[in-house]
Amino acid sequence: xxxxxxxxxxxxxxxxxxxxLSKESxxxxxxxxxxxxxxxxxxxxxxxxxxxxxxxxxxxFFC
Length: 63
Hints:
5 helices; 0% strand; 434 Repressor (Amino-terminal Domain); mainly alpha
């Protein structure tokens, strides 16, 4: 499973939209959109911010 697929899976489990992820994480909507639509991989720092917003650890993200 790749990062994008895992992000989609977690968002679906939480019932979150990309907009909510943007608001909860403090990342801009364009950053979130680029991750999903352009397939750009987030940096570790960005992924940590996303995980913190979703209240999971990086380890949980990759499990």
